[in-house]
Every structure is written in C-alpha cells, then in structure tokens.
Amino acid sequence: MKMAGAKPEVSFIGLGAMGFGMATNLIKNGYKVTGFDVWKPTLEKFQAAGGNIADTPAEAVKGTDYCICMVATAQQAQAVLIEGNDPALGALPKGAALLLCSTVPCAYVQGLEKQLAELGRGDIRLIDAPVSGGAARAADGTLSIMAGGSDDAIEKGRFLLQEMSDPYKLYIVKGGIGAGSNMKMCHQVLAANQILAASEGLGFATHLGLHPHFASQEILKSEGWAWMFENRLPRMLDPEYKPVASALTIILKDTGIITSEARRFGFPTPMTSTAEQVYFSALGRGYGPDDDSSLIRLYIEGKGKIGPVKGLAEDDQSKLALVVGLLKGIYLCSAAETIAFAAKCNLDLDQVFDLCINAAGGSTMFQTVGPEIIKLARGEQLSTGDGESFKELVQQLQEAIEEAQRVKAPVYLATQAFTLAQLALQLAPETAGNVSRAAVAKVWGL
Amino acid sequence: MKMAGAKPEVSFIGLGAMGFGMATNLIKNGYKVTGFDVWKPTLEKFQAAGGNIADTPAEAVKGTDYCICMVATAQQAQAVLIEGNDPALGALPKGAALLLCSTVPCAYVQGLEKQLAELGRGDIRLIDAPVSGGAARAADGTLSIMAGGSDDAIEKGRFLLQEMSDPYKLYIVKGGIGAGSNMKMCHQVLAANQILAASEGLGFATHLGLHPHFASQEILKSEGWAWMFENRLPRMLDPEYKPVASALTIILKDTGIITSEARRFGFPTPMTSTAEQVYFSALGRGYGPDDDSSLIRLYIEGKGKIGPVKGLAEDDQSKLALVVGLLKGIYLCSAAETIAFAAKCNLDLDQVFDLCINAAGGSTMFQTVGPEIIKLARGEQLSTGDGESFKELVQQLQEAIEEAQRVKAPVYLATQAFTLAQLALQLAPETAGNVSRAAVAKVWGL
C-alpha cells in the first residue's frame, strides 16, 4: 500500500538513468519533486516531466524535509552534500531525512554519518538505501531497496522507500548505517559476475557455431537462466548493443567497491576479481560509456583470426549442454562468493537469499543451491541427497572448458570457476563424492 | 666436449625458427644433414646454408641412422612420422635413433612409443627430447634439453643431444619416454606465466607514468628479474614488437598442453589457466603470428580512453617498488605452480630446479624461493628465518593491485597471484606469521 493523503515535498539530487526514473515516479505518485543534476539537458527533461528544477544542491533541498541522493559515486555524493559548489548540507532543514540511494562503500556512508555529527548536523536522519533492478523498475517504483539506518531515520523515510520499491522487495537491513550498502555490495557480487557471464556464455555459444537467437532462447528455459542474462539479452543481440541501459563504468564502479572492501576484510573474491580484470580491459578499449551487454564483443571477436578450430560437440543439443554447463559453473561460484562474503559482513543470510533471488542477481543456480550454501555457512551438515552432485556439475564445467580450449574461445569466468572447483575438491576430498554442489564454498572458508 | 672423428649422417624434419638453427649448427659442426620442411623457401635457405634437402620425410630419413624431428605440434609429428604424405617411418633404418624435440604432451610421445611397437618398429630408438632456450641458443648449440627414453636409446642419441645443448644444460630425465615432455611441460608453466608477466609488469609501469626504458632497466636490476623479461624486453620496446622471435601461437600451444594435462591429473593450474585466457583474447584480436612480447599491447591500450585516473605513488622509486612487488608476486606463484605440478608428475625436483634456473623459466624469485617450495613438497619444515616473509610479499602485492585498480590497469596475473596468496593465508592461518614465502604453495596441495 502506498501512503495516502497530502504528499510532502521531496528534493532529488542526481537524475541519471536510475535517478530520473525514480524521481519522475514520485511525481506520478503526486509528490512535488525538486531536482538537481550537473547535466543541464537532464534538468530540462525533468522539468518537462513535471518536476521543479534547481541550480544547486542547496537550492534543491531548501525547505524540503526529504532529500534523495542518487548520484553515481561516493565522490559525487560528498561533493553535492558537503564539499562541492553550494552543497546541500547547510540548506537541509533540521531533522530532514536524507536517503543516500547511490551504491557506495559501507565505509563511505559510515564515515558520512560521523562527519554529519562532527559538523553539528547529527539531527539529519541519514538512510543508507542502495537500490537494484534497473531503469525500468526505477521508473515503475518497483525497485529492490536495501535500507540501513537508525530506527528513527527508517521510520521517517519508510514511506519514500515504499514509493520507490516493490512491496515485496523493500529490505530493512539490520545493522544501522552501512548495512544497506553491505547488502547491496554482496548482491553486486552476483551482478558483477552474471553481467559478464551473459557475454561469456553467449560468446561461447557463438564460437560453438550456435545461432545466438536460438541458443539464448534455450538458455532462458534451462538451469542456466539468470536475471542478468535475460535482461541483457536484447541488447547483446542488438547489432549496436543499444540502448545504453547500464554503462560498463557503472558495474565497474560496483566491482571496485566489492574487491577493495573485500581486501580490507582479507576476504578473497576470485570470481569478482577475474570479472574486474576483464572490465578493465574493456575500459581500455574505450567501451566505458557503452552498455555492459556490449562486452560480448570481447568474446566473439576473432572469427577468421584464430585459424582453423574444431570442437567435439556436433549437434545443437550437445553444444547447448556445454553452454549451460559453463553458465551453471559460473553461477554456482558467484553464489558461493556472494553468500560467503555476506557471512563475512555479518548480514542476515536468509534476508540476503530472499533479496538476491528477487533482484537482478537472481539465477536458477542461486535459487537451488543458495540454501545449501547458507547451511554450510552456519556449520550445518550438507545434504548428500537428491539432484545433481558437485562432482557432476564439475564434470559438465570441465567439458565446457575443454571445448572452449579446442575452439580457442576465452572463458575467463568459467576457467576461474573450474579452478575453484578443483581447489574445493583438493581441500575437502570428501567432496569428490556425491555431495551438494554447495561444497565449492569451502574455498571461501565456509 | 663435442664428439670427435667421423660424423654420421643426420636427417632433420622441421626447419622452423628453432629447427633451422639446430640443423645448421650440426652442419657447422661437420655433420652431413638432410633436411625436410613443408615450407619450400626454408628448404632453399637450408640448402644455401650447406644442407641437403629432401622432398618428403621418407626421402630425408632414408639410410640415415639418426633422425631429429622438430615440428611444431604433435599433430605435425604424427603426420611426418606415420600418417602423412610419404612419412618417415617406413624409410627409417633398423635401430635408428629418432629424437622428437618438439614440445608435445607426455601422453602423445608415450602413445607414439606404443604405436611404433604395434607397427613392428619397436627397434626404433625413440628419444623424447624437448628443448628450451630460443632460436639464438638453438643456432649456437647451447640449448637446454630434457631427454627421456630407454637407456639404449639415450646411449645411441647422446652425442647429438650434446651437440645441440650447453654441456651444463643437458638433462637426462628419469622415467623413460614421456619424462622429457613432462619436464618441459613443468618448465613451460614458468614460461607461460613469465612471458605474460613481462607485458603485465611493463604495462603496469606505463600506466603508473614510468618511462618504459627507465622502468625496465631498474626491473632488470631488481628482485623482479626474470629471464623472460630480459629476453622479451627489446621487442616489447620496439614500436612494432619486432623481430618475431617467438609467436604467440607457440606459447599458447604449450599453455594448452599444460592446462589439458593438468586437468587429466585433476591438478589445478590457476596461474597458467589465467594466462591462457589472456592468450586466447590476444589470438582473437589477430595477434597469433606476432611475437609474444607484443602482448604488452593488451596492457597499455586505453591511454585517453579510461578517463581521469590517479594513483597514490608520486615518485619514481615508489612506482618502481609497486611494479617489482607485482612481478615478485606473479613469479612466486608461477614457481609454486611449477614445482607442485612437477611433484605431481613425479619428477626429480632437484633436477627440475637446476633445469629451470638455467633455462628460459629462470627468475630471481624462483632461484630464491624454489628450494623452500621443494622442501614443502617433501614434507619438510619451512624456515621461519631470514629475509622477506610471506606476509611482507603479500603486502607488497596488495599495494600493487590496489594501485592498479586506482589507475584502472588490468593486471590479470597479479590479481590471480593475490587471490592465491589470500587462499593460502586462509588455508593455513599460521602462514600469516613470519614464514617463508613458499607457504603460498599450500594452495596447490603441497
């Protein structure tokens, strides 16, 4: 249920692909929204959509009790809130709610809370509220939101969180300021790996000689399904990888948050670190502003340049099985990395699971194996029971890797997943038996 | 000492960059050599250098008691020896020595021995004799050679092995046919990683704003020295990466032998597998025929495309320390992967060490830490004593990775090395103390 009655005024800083949709959704729901963005054409568009516009952050927030900040980075947040030109801080009314929806490191938002107190603005009700779900859901008000903050702040800001999110996808994360960012960060482990996996999987299919339209439709029906694959697919299939719905630089920023925070904890992120290197290579080629689905370019180039190659798989069904095996291996390891990292961040793992399967990180593998990995994280016994065993999954992954080697196709993530599976088998030889696929998570110390 | 007196006739199949030098060296040493190659211009050049030439493999080997085969792949060897047009087998005199100097999988040369017996040619004295050292040493007769075979075969072929090798770099590897190939394969773990490390290290230096001429000279004087870095350096610095001394396709072939043989053993090769993916990407870009030093292109592109970036290191010495820290981390992990794989292949680890430090795989790190890793492989106690500890090395590697992230430079191998170091610390928390850097090898099960 959305809130009824008179709607308060809201200021909105940062009207990019996500922010614009979120802000105009509030307008559609009857709020008077004053927007600010450094990019003037966006402001004009926002005005045309019924918003008020401001020339500076301070002007936007003046007299409004609710401020939503949806800039791209922690540096930008710091600038518009405190350190830049005519920043918001001085103009925010006493006791105002400040919802920081940008994806930032936990350390940043915790530092911001401290800095507000030091600057005598402990009255501001800061909410750490990163979102997930993409531009379409932003505009629909059906985002996934993970919010952390004091009870007082959450109470004041809850109606806005509700306006922007799907009723089943608003997560109030225990742990106060920073907990929302940690939750988002752990979710983004799935995103960082699965965005690239979409390109790697479909690129591999192409190397095998499968038609990408046919292969992708089959993948969507298989255990190799992932939200990211389905979401990126139309743009991967577009000859120009258009429209730009989420630029490479966005996921690269999130990836950097994951790997740098993980290093701070001494926590290994073999999957995300591998993805990050491929993202850096793509950035170096000038693909930064392009849609991240365009990374399939890195995986399909070379036709006619790699010399004669021949795989073993002859028919479409065998080839598809290899592609699905490759994707499942990647998704298994990204699930394990996510849950192990969430455990390291002391997040509520049931909440992590519920959030991830309903957000952009969802995949069939996560849905199936996630609960088993959570058991492992809690020191409970793994099942040895039904369904595909770890050994069977590793066998499929190995067959995919071997075929990729024959056709000389790069498969960075699958190769890393296979290495991790081998290390898990070596670490715990009992996993060589018919145990749950969750056993791979032993590599991350679970 | 080279053999004195009358020199027997020798046939030589495969006159590529290595084979041509090896064959003409024999001519210079007074042998009558009959050469065969599928590429006619090479044959003309060989004739001009004093060789006899033949139109087919059978014609080349007819009546000569010694045949050296130096083609590029196992497939080519199979063709010229047995299955191709007018192959050598039928024409080889009874009891002839057949030196297979190509780098091939152990499984291939063992299969070849079996096939010879099945075809009624068990009389042929097969020697498995892959080489290392590059084209210049091939032409000088100062290669490293690792030879396996029956005592009888080695006895017959030893003088030729001696003609082609440096007297201190001829290794008769215990274990019969296949042992030479296994030794070469383990050595190539170092090669596969350190060829790419040269590009990664100098590429990273470039991203940091160091002049590559300056940086490389400093690296050569540091603990970040490696034979491959020194050898590839002139070509990395050449604007066209010329001359082509060793094509990408050559090291990619060896890399494929390593990773596929390792999978057969269930042995993880996280470093080489990472390198292989980068090689596949380079192949897809059409760099296959280019010198492998040209892979630095993958690491330096993007100037002006990656947006404004800024590292923390200000002065040249701090930047150099980061580059050396990066290289040391990679060399440590490639040393561990090599020795652990050699142990898995049941090779004599003292011989492996002696061979590697004197061949193309040598590095200061291998020289320093190799003996400690061998101790670990033998279940002996690691020293806790002098010099840099594991923790200190990991710290330097981490600083390098973090700076690479700041300047958005891809560092695939260093990232993998850091992940492995983290896993080693997690596996064996006691390694967090002041133990030997060899502790990283625990990841490979040592």
Task: Walk me through the structure.
Two copies of one chain form a homodimer. Chain A is of the alpha/beta class. The first copy, chain A, contains 18 helices and nine strands. In chain A, strands 3-2-1-4-5-6 form a six-stranded parallel β-sheet. Chain A has a three-stranded mixed β-sheet with strand order 7-8-9. In chain A, strand 5 (97-100), helix 5 and strand 6 form a beta-alpha-beta unit. In chain A, helix 11 runs antiparallel to helix 12 and helix 12 (270-284) packs antiparallel against helix 18. Chain A is globular, with a radius of gyration of 23 Å. Chain A starts with 9 loop residues before the first strand and ends in a 19-residue tail after the last helix. The mean pLDDT of chain A is 94. At the A-B interface, helix 11, helix 12, helix 17 and helix 18 of A face helix 11, helix 12, helix 17 and helix 18 of B.
Structural class given helices, strands, pairing of chain A? Answer: alpha/beta
Rounded mean pLDDT score of chain A: 94
Quaternary state of this entry equals: homodimer
Count interface residues per chain for the largest interface: A-B, 48 and 48 residues
Count of DSSP-assigned helices of chain A: 18
Which blocks of ≥5 consecutive residues of chain A have pLDDT under 50?
A: none
Strand content of chain A: 5-15%
Strand order of the largest sheet of chain A: 3-2-1-4-5-6
**Residues in helices of chain A, as a percent range:** 40-55%
Shape estimate of chain A: globular
Largest sheet of chain A: 6 strands, parallel
Instruction: Find the count of extended strands of chain A (DSSP E, 2+ residues).
Output: 9
The ordered string of helix (H) and strand (E) elements of chain A is EHEHEHEHEHEEHEHEHHHHHHHHHHH
Radius of gyration of chain A: 23 Å
How widely separated are the two ends of chain A?
40 Å
